[in-house]
Amino acid sequence: DEIVRMAEERDIYLIPVLNNHGKISTFCDQEWHRNPFNRRNGGFLDNCEDFYSSPRAKQAFKRYARYLIARWGYSPNILSWKLFSEINLTGNSTNCYRQPAAREWHKEMGDFMWRHDPNRHMVTTHWSSDYRVINDGIADLQELDYLTTDAYGGSNQHVFQLIEGTAAYGEQKRKPVVITEYGGSPFGDSVGDLTKQLHLGLWKGYFAKMAISPMLWWFAFVEEQD
C-alpha cells in the first residue's frame, strides 16, 4: 500500500511481478523444493511443470490474481501486471516455457486479468537474457499487450547491439518490447562500464523509439555513484 501511495505521489509507474521463476524451477534459483504446492510439502503437485496445466494450481493462481486486482487495481500508477519474470528459467529445463502448457497458461491468465480488472491495466510477461530467447508461442498471444526481456552483454558494444536488436524485434512483432533489466553481464561490470551503459540505455532507447527506456538492473549503483 505504501509503495503504491509513494508511486502516485511521485508520478512513478509500477509493473508488479506476480510470479518469479524460482518458485517452479528445479534448475535455476531453485525454490520448488520449498513451494507449498509441492506434494513433499503437503501440496498437490508432483512436478513443478504441472503448475502450468493443473486445474487446481490455475484456480489458486486466479484467486491470488483476483486479490491483487481488488487491492491495487484501483491505481492508475499500476502500469501493467507481469504474469512471470524469467519464464525461460521455469520448469525442469530450458525447454519448459516452449511447451504448449506454458503458452495456454499465459493465454488463460492474460484473459483472466483482462476480464477481472475493471481498469484494464496492461498485461505482460518476461524472458531473461535477451530478446533472442523469446518464443513466438507466448509472444504472439493477443492477451499480452507488450513483452519484457533483458539485455545483458559482455561489452558496451554488445549491450548497444542488444538494445538495437530488441527494438527491431518489437517492430517485427508489431508489439512493444521493453528491456526491464540490463547492465554489463548478469554478474556485474565495472563502474566505468555501468556509467556508460546507463547513458547508453537512455540514449539508444529514445532514438530506437522504444516504448519505455531500458531499465538498468544495478539500481543501487545510481544512488551510490550519485
Ordered list of secondary-structure elements with their pairings:
Layout: H1 2-10, H2 55-72, E1 80-82, H3 100-116, E2 122-124, H4 136-139, E3 147-151, H5 156-173, E4 177-182, H6 191-207, H7 219-224
Parallel strand pairs: 1-2, 3-4
Write a brief structural summary.
This protein has helices at residues 2-10, 55-72, 100-116, 136-139, 156-173, 191-207, 219-224, and strands at 80-82, 122-124, 147-151, 177-182. The longest helix has 18 residues, at 55-72.
What does this structure look like?
This protein has 226 residues and is mainly α. The chain has helices at 2-10, 55-72, 100-116, 136-139, 156-173, 191-207, 219-224, and strands at residues 80-82, 122-124, 147-151, 177-182. A two-stranded parallel sheet has the order 1-2. The longest helix has 18 residues, at 55-72. The radius of gyration is 18 Å and the shape is globular.
How are strands sequenced across the largest beta sheet? Answer: 1-2
Q: What is the overall pLDDT average?
A: 96
* Strand-residue proportion: 5-15%
Secondary structure class reads mainly alpha
Enumerate how many helices there are, as a single number. 7
| Approximate shape | globular
Helix content: 25-40%
Task: Provide the gyration radius in Å.
Answer: 18 Å
End-to-end span in angstroms? Answer: 28 Å
Oligomer: single chain
Question: What are the key terms here?
Answer:
39% helix; mainly alpha; 7 helices; two-stranded parallel sheet; 4 strands; single chain; 226 residues
